[in-house]
């Protein structure tokens, strides 16, 4: 763990710490610094991890769409850790990595479908300090996805916003998980549209 975080990294101790470390290394190749920073309050870490795990078990909404929405939140709030890990997970789960790489510049990219653009716009609108989701955008997504998938997408975006903001505030940054992928990691935002959205 090379980066310095604003919340000091704790050593993951005991049987639980050893199990978390083994699982992280098996799935990711390394222990995310976010785990070490959050280890100071295991109740919070467990609750956050539980929400993420439960959200991943839902299957009414397309996995690519959820992945792109999550990465758009990460890009918007400046969470390089989430972008890095999101790309790594997209790659390892067989999702569309060409599109995943383009999420931070989705407005300029020609790769995305209208539905994917609406999904990322929705993630962006939900993530504003005062959410800016419009009736028109919601209606388009409802028509294209149906109510169960729209509920799932909405519930997937909210914890992504929470996690991205926690990581950013704690000073957790990219650890290079995506470096192990064959395709280069995500692009950086190429415009200042995010700040005015």
Features:
197 residues, mainly alpha, AhpD-like, globular, disordered C terminus
Explain what the structure shows.
There is one protein chain. The chain is mainly alpha-helical. It has a domain at 60-196: AhpD-like (Up-down Bundle), CATH 1.20.1290.10. Helices cover 62% and strands 0% of the residues. It is built from 10 helices and no strands. The chain has helices at residues 14-28, 33-38, 42-56, 63-77, 80-92, 97-102, 114-126, 135-145, 147-170, 193-196. Helix 3 (42-56) runs antiparallel to helix 9 (147-170), helix 4 packs across helix 7 (114-126) and helix 7 (114-126) packs across helix 8 (135-145). The radius of gyration is 17 Å and the shape is globular. It starts with 13 loop residues before the first helix and ends with a helix.
What's this, in brief?
The protein contains 10 helices and no strands. By secondary structure, the protein is mainly α.
Name the average pLDDT: 88
Q: Which shape, going by the Cα principal axes?
A: globular
Distance between the terminal alpha carbons, to the nearest Å? 34 Å
CATH superfamily of the domain at 60-196: AhpD-like
- pLDDT below 50 for ≥5 consecutive residues: which ranges? 190-197
Sketch the major β-sheet. Answer: none
Give the number of helices.
Answer: 10
Q: What is the highest CATH level, the class of the domain at 60-196?
A: Mainly Alpha
What is the CATH T-level topology of the domain at 60-196? AhpD-like
